[in-house]
Amino acid sequence: MADAGGNGGHLPAGDAGSPAGTGGGPAPGTGGGGLADGVPVLAVQDLVAGYGEAVALGGVSISAAQGTVTAVLGANGAGKTTLLRAISGLIKVRGGSVLLDGVDVTRRKPEDMARAGVAHVPEGQGVITELTVEENLRLGALIRAGRAVRAAALEQAYQQFPVLASRRRKPAATLSGGERQMLVIARALLAAPRVLLLDEPSLGLAPIVISQVMALVAGLRDSTGLTILLVEQNARAALAIADRGVVLNLGKVAVTAQAADLAADTGLLNHYLGL
Amino acid sequence: MQEFLEFTLGGISFGMIYAAIGLSLVLIWRGTRILNYAQGGMAMFTTYIALIVINHTGNYWAGFAVALAAGLVLGAVCELAVRPAEGKPPMNAVIVTIGLLILLEGLAGIIYGGQYRSFPAAFSVTGLRIGSTALGVSRNDVFVAAAVLAAALALAAMFRYTQVGLRLRATAFGPRVARLLGIRIGRVLTLGWALAGLIGALAGVLVSPSTFLYPDSMDSIFVLGFTAAVIGGLDSPLGAVVGGLTLGVALNYAGGYLGSALVPVFGMAALVLILMVRPSGLLGSASSRQV
Amino acid sequence: MTMLRHLAAAILVALAAALLSVELGAFRDYQMAQVAVYVVAVAGLSVLIGLSGQISIGHGAFMAIGAYCAALLLMHLSWPLEAVLAASAAGTALAGLVVGVAAARLRGPYLAGVTLMLAVALPALAFQYPGVFGGDQGLGVSITTPAFLGPTFPLTRWQAWVATAAALITLVLLANLAHSRIGRSWRAIRDDETAAALAGLNVAALRVLAFVISAACAGLAGALLGVITTLVSPGSFTITLSIALLTAAVLGGLGTLPGAVWGSLVIVLVPTYITDVATSHGLPSSVAANIPVAAYGVVLIAVMLVFPNGIQGGVRRLLGPALPAASGSLSAVRRTARPGAHPGAGGSPGALRRMVRPGGPPDADGSLNAFRRQAPANEHPEEGTQ
């Protein structure tokens, strides 16, 4: 597969709403940075959410600074997917709050969160298989204003993801797992989001494809300053590119640390993730 | 042979009506997994509105246009009533739409009375002939077929080539993803129902010259339109059209050769047979595995 | 024990009803009989929909079958009334068997559509063979009070007694059925068909059985209707009847037997009342006759959206723990498994919760992606409705 994420593309300068394209935010590992007064782009405070009578998140607090990748790790059932769904509004939040650039967006509907700049790539990828590749992509651009803007964004996406360009008219169902992951990430990016929520992008993919996807994610952070929350069961792959890591256990935060420190702490990884 | 030709062509006109109803059912089903039992009732109601306009203005086309517009509005309104049922078990939606159906029939009875009214046809209904061969169709029949076909093609084009169509399809196939991409699926669903209401209204004005207009007049048309949609597979707009045509022609044969009173029985037998063999309709996508 | 309890209750009610019927005049007796007829049909329908999870909007057709059976039997053979009623119920049960088998694989709207078709198509037979079925005019039903009651016993009271007795017997039988293993099996297939099948239940047979029993009830009700109105004609068995039955079942509380009683009371008494009020206010009869129809519609919509458990649900809420355990209610119909259900498609509020997608083509990647679609369902149970 061609180098899809390595050089990342710059979005056209005049495009309103694109994240600052100044060649990357703070270097990985410093864990700082955000807006001028240090407000994290995305913050979750004491978030409580669940399904029916079950409580899947029992008070989770996480913050993500601009231009960082925060890996959210944990075993099956730890609450990782629930966290993303609660942030993007797919499930009802029962307590706590979600802040975007310091603004409380806790109970907004998914459509509104998307329009506020939060792109959620759900578990299972969410490729609409009845549509073509191009139609899937065009969906991502629907909230951009103006035909010219949308067309330009689409072309830019094709440049960034040549493999999608070569299959643009094919039904999305014909893509392989790795290609589908590219598709849904490209689609999410077409909305020019501030925040990208990725739910287990490596699931079901071959190792070499996993590293390509991770490289893409890292590239996005580096070149566009996107703030990324990366939920993963594959802790190693995620920590390799992340700035910070959060380990969830049974709906609560067990550990928050720099990614490098987490990756080195094999005892901890063993304990919470069985690695 | 002459009879056969007559029966075939004659069945097309009604077949297109079933296709139209079937099409509106598919439209709503695809987007919401709800079967709109009120579709016939909505069509009946808008036809009454058309009749009032026609009687007041003396202009058929004014009534025609108003019926279509009323169909759009009524469809949107009905969606709002049904929306709370959209997330719940399917039983709820069935009962709510049936409630809507009889509400409309009751209202029609109250407002317009129960007597059979005649509704004008757009064009002449005398049978056409080529030379001395009776074709079994009239100019009006040709208009009916053409109108439904045009509507179906316009709908297909809209789905395929427009942004609105893309939104409709995304909402139908991947509603959760669509929401995550910022699509306001509530509005999209309302639009879907409005379009279904439009097509239903078209079917209503096209068929009422033959059936007369009274509060229950669209009940059997609805049932056959539903049959057409089911035959074609509830997910397939093309299937609805094919199913409608097939059903219309087949029922016409049955009526012609076996006696018209048995037509509903024949229709029922056809429906049951097809569903026994393919519980999701002929062209419908097969159900996913259960476990 | 349960059977005894039910029998005792039934006997008490029978005595009370008998007393009432003596006190009230002929018209009220007729209404009591009407209510009883509806109770029989609605109870069967409520069991079908509420307990076994299958919908039928064509039960009026089964009533018609029972009614015509009774009329024909009384006309051509001189069987005693009990035999006629039993035979009509049995005959309709047979029809229910045919329909049930044909519809065994159908779910949701497909099933409803077939039953609707039945309601529309069946009257056509009456017109096709007018010699047998009396065409539009129908068939007369001749009923006389039995000799042992004496010559002055009013016919309407006898009709009320017969109908009420039949209703009580039906209720007792259905109550026992609902509490039996069969009733539990029905609830199991209603709530989660796949799980029930995996647990070893014969889903198809149970579904057909529910159809047969509810059809038998409707057939009995139809025969009774013929008895109390002394006439059986296609005009009595239109789609409106089927919908009235459905309304009564829903309004009373799906799956509950007391609900069948509440619903029947409302369906019989309220429209007459409304029409009376309307005509006394000078509204023309066509308007007055249609107000109940429009009201049915509003009731169905309102009940489903606002009080899905109907009247009996409200009664339960008021009386609470004083009542024995509920045999089943609509709010428990949470996860009627449907073909095409997409695991993992849940987890979002309101409108999306039950959106399902068509089966769709298998993932190009094969099994692992398919597994991925299953996995979220294991990890995150779908948000329940309540």
Quick synopsis:
Chain A has 275 residues and is of the alpha/beta class. Chain A is 35% helix and 23% strand. In chain C, helix 3 packs parallel to helix 5 and helix 8 packs across helix 10.
Which helices and strands occur, and which strands form pairs?
The complex is a heterotrimer of chains A (275), B (291) and C (386).
Chain A: E1 42-51, E2 54-64, E3 69-73, H1 80-88, E4 93-100, E5 103-104, H2 110-115, E6 118-121, H3 133-141, H4 147-160, H5 162-166, H6 177-189, E7 195-199, H7 207-224, E8 227-232, H8 235-241, E9 244-249, E10 252-258, H9 259-264, H10 266-273
Parallel strand pairs in A: 3-8, 3-9, 6-7, 7-8
Antiparallel strand pairs in A: 1-2, 1-4, 4-5, 9-10
Chain B: H1 2-32, H2 39-57, H3 60-82, H4 90-112, E1 127-130, E2 133-138, H5 139-161, H6 163-173, H7 175-180, H8 185-211, H9 219-232, H10 237-258, H11 263-277
Antiparallel strand pairs in B: 1-2
Chain C: H1 2-23, H2 26-51, H3 59-76, H4 81-102, H5 108-128, H6 130-133, E1 139-140, H7 155-179, H8 181-191, H9 193-198, H10 203-229, E2 231-232, H11 239-252, H12 257-280, H13 285-306, H14 310-319, H15 367-379
Antiparallel strand pairs in C: 1-2
Q: How is this structure best described in words?
A:
- The complex is a heterotrimer of chains A (275), B (291) and C (386).
- Chain A is built from ten helices and ten strands.
- Mean pLDDT of chain A is 85; it is low at 1-35.
- Chain A has helices spanning 80-88, 110-115, 133-141, 147-160, 162-166, 177-189, 207-224, 235-241, 259-264, 266-273; strands at 42-51, 54-64, 69-73, 93-100, 103-104, 118-121, 195-199, 227-232, 244-249, 252-258.
- Chain A is globular and about 45 Å long.
- Chain A is of the alpha/beta class.
- In chain A, helix 7 (207-224) links the parallel strand 7 and strand 8 (227-232).
- Chain B has 291 residues and is mainly alpha-helical.
- Helices cover 74% and strands 3% of the residues of chain B.
- Chain B contains eleven helices and two strands, in the order H-H-H-H-E-E-H-H-H-H-H-H-H.
- Chain B has helices at residues 2-32, 39-57, 60-82, 90-112, 139-161, 163-173, 175-180, 185-211, 219-232, 237-258, 263-277; strands at residues 127-130, 133-138.
- In chain B, strand 1 and strand 2 (133-138) form a beta hairpin.
- In chain B, helix 1 runs antiparallel to helix 8, helix 9 packs across helix 10 (237-258) and helix 9 runs parallel beside helix 11 (263-277).
- Chain B is globular.
- In chain B, 59% of the residues are buried.
- Mean pLDDT of chain B is 87; it is low at 287-291.
- Chain C has 386 residues and is mainly alpha-helical.
- Chain C has a domain at 2-238.
- Helices cover 69% and strands 1% of the residues of chain C.
- In chain C, 52% of the residues are buried.
- The chains are: A alpha/beta (275), B mainly alpha (291), C mainly alpha (386).
- Chains in contact: A-B, A-C, B-C.
- The interface between B and C is large, with 75 and 78 residues.
